[in-house]
Amino acid sequence: MEKNKVFCLGNFQAEPGEKKSGYLFVGNGEFELPVTILNGEKRGKTVLITAGVHAAEYVGIQSAMELAEHLHPEKIAGTVVIVKVVNRQAFEMRSGSEGFEDGVNLNRVFPGKETGSQMERLAYAIEKELFPGVDFYIDLHSGDSYEQLTPYIYYAGVAEPRVVEAAREMAQQADVPYMVRSCVAGGGCYNYAAQLGIPSVLIERGQMGAWTEEEAHSTRRDVRNILCHLGVYLGQKDYRNYYPLEVTDVSYQAANQNGIWYPYKSPGDMIRQGEVLGVVKDYEGTVLEVCRAEYDGVVLYQTGSLQVKESGPMIAYGKISREADNRKKKIAGYWTKRSTSFQEQRRAELHSSLADRWLKEIGKYLPKKKLKILDVGCGSGFFTILLAQQGHEVLGVDLTPDMIKRSKELAEEEGADCIFQVMDAENLTFADETFDVVISRNLTWTLPDANRAYREWLRVLKKGGCLLNFDANYGASDCADTSHLPQNHAHNKLGEELLQECEEIKRQLPISSYQRPAWDVGVLGNLGTVELFLDFSVSKRIYMEKDEFYNPDPLFVISARKGE
Hints:
Blueprint: E1 7-9, E2 12-14, E3 18-26, E4 31-39, E5 42-51, H1 58-70, E6 77-83, H2 88-92, H3 118-130, E7 136-141, E8 147-149, E9 152-156, H4 161-171, E10 178-182, H5 189-195, E11 200-204, H6 213-229, E12 245-254, E13 259-263, E14 270-271, E15 276-281, E16 287-292, E17 297-303, E18 307-308, E19 313-321, H7 327-350, H8 353-363, E20 372-376, H9 382-388, E21 393-398, H10 401-414, E22 419-422, E23 435-441, H11 450-459, E24 461-472, H12 496-506, H13 518-526, E25 529-535, H14 538-542, E26 555-562
Parallel strand pairs: 5-6, 5-7, 7-11, 9-10, 10-12, 20-21, 20-23, 21-22, 23-24
Antiparallel strand pairs: 1-2, 3-4, 4-6, 8-17, 9-11, 12-19, 13-15, 13-18, 14-17, 15-16, 17-19, 24-26, 25-26
């Protein structure tokens, strides 16, 4: 990377490799904003981070201060500008989230006016003095003093397609359940930035004008992950508990009159069309208004105070669009690139001592009779072919069409009588209770919703049938680090780009942050399995040599029987 330049912003000047804090004067000196600038030694993009656009939303403000403390300029390629409190006077005077002098909501007046009210002047100064030269923008918010919310993230959705797509990719890095595409172009700070060509997101976490250390830490981690994604922070992303599902058609329901507000739901609750979400009453308890859901969806936020104002917010909810989740497309694309080499490895493995070891290992759990077996995530067909050669009726399924193509080729070479189909492990198309055995090898760690997959596998399993899952806690290791592997190992032939792509996908999957196999055991126990057995010593019996097939991550096997 090229060496960075001196970064200048107003009265600030930061040398390459320098962190500089103080007050930035904008609007001809009218506004003094607490700022930290981290100017990396390496050249890169410039990211603007703001908090306190709404001065009573404290999680964002605390997160911004922690980011200024914890980010290291030596790990930055480019420049990060952190404005810790934009609406500083309102924050210090504890006047809520509106301007102290004019009572105006700053996040509704962009692009502002040079000679307008206080908040209009501040908005104008931000546009003219902070936005120029910025490549990406992250705005940190939380619930106002009257707002309850579930953590989620907005991304700017009314801008040039390249800006919207970049903003959406930024939103996907956040460890929150939901992301919302904003459908307005003006007013909001981040929306207006997108109009200027700056991909922008707004993070919502925390509620009711409060903050906790955990909330601030989580927002800080979200920002760091976004910076890593952008290549601005030279580190590895943290794992997450969530991958944000897209929420569309958000309904912001407002009250028709002043009254006492009684919500029936909580943020994050799923709702059904026509369901009562809350009521507004007068002081005598007479119902003045009933709030009903216009469609199925999820509650994002609602008024948490006892009163609502005429035309003021009551509740906001939207539809969950699972079709917008593109992780499976990325996963299938990754394994498509690996399908040819995978076939070569499995071909060699079928004619190695590992084949007999695997048959011996699997045979411990299978009854001595012909069985109908489903191999889920069959890859290039190793287990499917092995078990078919033992006389079982075996069907292999995989999400990646190229893997299924390679499986069929390999089965024909080996003379194995088995069937292969392209199918999603989380959405099997088989009827209930179809198979005697469901088996899987190195699949669950790649699944966006492993819980759903386990439910599906048990659904298609006959009563008394056996579920066998061979996997490892791959989320705890870095597959891009091949220094401990033998020179002829398969991973050393993949190239750094593919290995990094694998790591990127892993960090988009919640299962990578689970304690495994404890999590798997808990899920299967809750799903009603019986005779659950766990073995941690599989690798010792399978991978006796450090050769091309060697797996450095300790395998475990979970065997569970479906209840009668």
